[in-house]
Amino acid sequence: MRAVQFSEYGGPEVLTVVDVPEPEAGPGRIRVAVRAVAVNPADWKYRSGLMTVRSLPHIPGNDVAGVVDQVGDGVTGVSIGDEVFGAAVRAGYAERAVLSAWEPKPPTMSWPEAAAVPTAVETAARAYATVDAADGATVVVNGASGGVGSAAVQLGVARRMTVLGVAGPANADYLEQLGAVPVAYGDGLVERIRALAPVGVDFALDIAGSRVIAALVQLTADPSRVVSVADFSAPELGAKVTNGAEGRHWEALRTAAELYAQGRYLIEVQEVFPLAEAAAAHRLSQTGHVRGKLVLAV
User: Fold this and answer.
1) pLDDT digits (tens, 9 = 90+) for 143-195
2) Using CA atoms, how far apart are residues 139 and 180, in angstroms rounded to an integer?
3) Fold for domain 2-117+267-297?
4) Is 297 exposed, middle or buried (0-12, 13-18, 19+ CB in 10 A)?
5) CA angle centred on 177, ends 186 and 104, rounded to 5°
6) Where do the domains of the chain lie?
7) Inter-residue contact 102 to 78 (CB < 8 Å)
8) How many CB atoms lie within 10 A of CB 283?
9) Residue 210 — pLDDT band, cuts 50, 70, 90?
10) CA distances (Å), 27 to each of 23, 83, 100, in order?
11) End-to-end C-alpha distance for the chain, whole angstroms
């Protein structure tokens, strides 16, 4: 099967299309014929060497949508031919991938949309759980227009939260469409948020990692109510971090599917690239100015 891998750390040019053996589902897992796979910032961080993989060569990609073509021992509730989306064990940039967590794809959800969901919604749900955010609370989401931020906004709105979404001014209309109150980032952030939420902020999620932890702690007046998924120095100020090592929240896949079917979950896919153009997708991802998600079509 075709796959995209890198054999050494470096720039996007180290990504190459190769032929590799097909993986096998194994117990408790399923294999899919991949239709689309998301490009996440972690993918280029691993490729560049900012983060290291267990071994080289390495096939990136965790978020996959496709058609089930193999069901492992012990798996129930899914059959060959089913359309699903979920989390790849590894090696999602390929024509076949093995999933460890999955959910049926709503019929009206496109393949690129489905691939854009898994990591984003799981990370957002995990961030809320880390601070034990309550329904109906007032929450700040820093980095609200990206993939994870968009998911956090919509999960919060679905839980009747007042969500103040921090992003660039160009994304204000988009955030309003998601149900958030847009807030421009930059100097004066605390004052702008206090003007919009005079009764205070209950919780804060830092998705962007843009050195705002001190401001978020100031807004909540309780560092234990602030969590970052990107700034791992946050505990120095008493805030929390989550990287998934403490456990995943893949049940959020079902939540996203249900909300989508109800017309209450918008999935923004900025651009879809052919699998062979993964390097171009990485270059765009590295700019840090992606609204929603980038996806590879297989």
Assistant:
1) 999 899 999 999 999 999 999 999 999 999 999 999 999 999 999 999 999 99
2) 10
3) Quinone Oxidoreductase; Chain A, domain 1 (3.90.180)
4) middle
5) 115
6) 2-117+267-297, 121-241
7) yes
8) 14
9) confident
10) 13, 20, 10
11) 11
How far is residue 291's CA from residue 272's CA, in Å, rounded to a whole number?
13
- 213-220 and 189-196 helices, crossing angle to 10°: 30
CB 4, CB 59: distance < 8 Å: yes
Residue 109 has pLDDT above 90, yes or no: yes
Domain 121-241: give its CATH architecture: 3-Layer(aba) Sandwich (3.40)
How does pLDDT run across 127-154, given as a tens digit for each residue?
999 999 999 999 999 999 989 999 999 9
Q: What is the mean pLDDT of residues 236-260?
A: 97
Burial of 172 by CB count in 10 Å (0-12 exposed, 13-18 middle, 19+ buried)? middle
- Contacts of residue 263, Cβ cutoff 8 Å, sequence gap at least 6: none
